[in-house]
Amino acid sequence: MMSRSIWLVSGVHLGTVKKDDNVCFSLQPMTRWYIASNQTTKNTAPAEGDENATDRSSYHHGDLRRALIEAAAGLVEESGPAGFSLREVARRAGVSHAAPAHHFGSTKGLLTAVASEGFELLTAAMRQARHGVEDPADQLRAVGRAYVSVSLGNAGHAAVMFRSDIVDHDDEFFAACGLDSYGQLQQTIEAIRDTYNPDLDVELVCKLVWSTAQGIVTLHSDFGPLDERRDVRTLELTQLLDGLVDLLLDGIRPR
Amino acid sequence: MMSRSIWLVSGVHLGTVKKDDNVCFSLQPMTRWYIASNQTTKNTAPAEGDENATDRSSYHHGDLRRALIEAAAGLVEESGPAGFSLREVARRAGVSHAAPAHHFGSTKGLLTAVASEGFELLTAAMRQARHGVEDPADQLRAVGRAYVSVSLGNAGHAAVMFRSDIVDHDDEFFAACGLDSYGQLQQTIEAIRDTYNPDLDVELVCKLVWSTAQGIVTLHSDFGPLDERRDVRTLELTQLLDGLVDLLLDGIRPR
DNA sequence: AGATGGATCTTGACATCATCTAGATAATCT
DNA sequence: AGATTATCTAGATGATGTCAAGATCCATCT
Fold first, then answer.
1. pLDDT computed for residue B60 by the predictor
2. Whose CA is nearest the C1' atom of nucleotide D7?
3. What pLDDT does A58 receive?
4. Quick check: B193 pLDDT over 90?
5. Cβ pair A146, A129 in contact under 8 A
6. What does DSSP assign to residue A82?
7. Helix, strand or coil for residue A183?
8. What distance in Å separates the CA atoms of residue A79 and residue A85, rounded to the nearest whole number?
């Protein structure tokens, strides 16, 4: 039996598995090599005719894992992580109430898969945003916008990605996806260091920017009502991001 | 029947209520005026003898609301918001399974009370931290440390304060507490503006700092394992905070 | 082609949970 | 003292996560 090389969207090689390998990241076969794979067979959905067929007539769904992740993300987007339920996900996918648990083990397993996919989307968007931009400052701006764009465009994923009580942090695939995203930011900050300030503490800035971005996205929905109460203009997310970059580069004190 | 003046810990006057007034913030009588109240009776716990007596023998608990909030905060601290359950809170307080719902209406109600108390603690800590510090930059540093200190010392509260799906954002008391905390930060940033840069966009900086602080605290537990994986030194929270202040003041580009 | 093993999904059951209603008990007001 | 209100309990209901056992389909081997 041939072995398969496992790659993340971002190009990181996770390892190889042979048949009957019981590796830790065997939980997400669908999403893992769906972009970068120089090997063997891809994991394609078999049925092409019945596309959006949740009303499948066959016993087997075809790509239930994918459908469950999408249903889960949609449900979280609508009802928040608190309103999430495995049974509702199953209902939306048109399968029995225990089907999700078979694929993901538990609630945590499914949400971990959603979160992992969120990081994959984020990594891809960040890479694409950086591509072809020379000025590191502009790169950072672009990365920030990509971050916001992914978070707003995939609210279900975003709502889950940083909730350590809901997600399994020991999951290898999840951790790899997270590190991948972090790497994109890190490369950007390193470019800034090389261009602007060789003494820059990359690690520190990375964590600050990451925290801020996460905070901005998380709190954005809270700021709205808050601003209304105070009768204050509401800042757009992009304004916040650009403001952050400007402040980080030049500081509060005028030159 | 006399009327009562309602004050927040922070000194903000919320309004007055008469008997039988069905005001929106009638849900949290215990916490509301427990510091600043220039009127009438305070809401004191009647029983002094049986202090930590969850094994009360009397039918009435005495200060069940308080006990429930504490039990809830403790439970969240142990199991995270996902592991929270009204019945477990009731169990810890030694009362029947439906008692919490009577006081707080629902899960959301109890968690909203916890979150509100978290903001009260935060406001008090921030105010105390600012007190007597002249240099606005030092003030900001002090406020940041207070923020971190409160978040780490009250992990249960902190884990709930920004989760908009778990907490009732329309609750007037909660909103007032949040605005109060925000006000403390705002005053600090205004001082920085007055001292360092009259053109500073206070609103922007406030939101950025708030987001960053929240992000730092939220992600702190995630950064640890992440750093281990990358074999990188772990930054202390205070280092992050101080680094943030320095960067905000002077920026990345050297002068 | 036919059998076999494994993966996929269903069914049923169980304990737990939030919430609702009705009732019991204590405190307060008049 | 009597009535009213606030506090808490008890029971019931529907929904949920998880487990175990079974049904169905698919891939592989002979």
1. 66
2. B60
3. 64
4. yes
5. yes
6. G
7. helix
8. 10
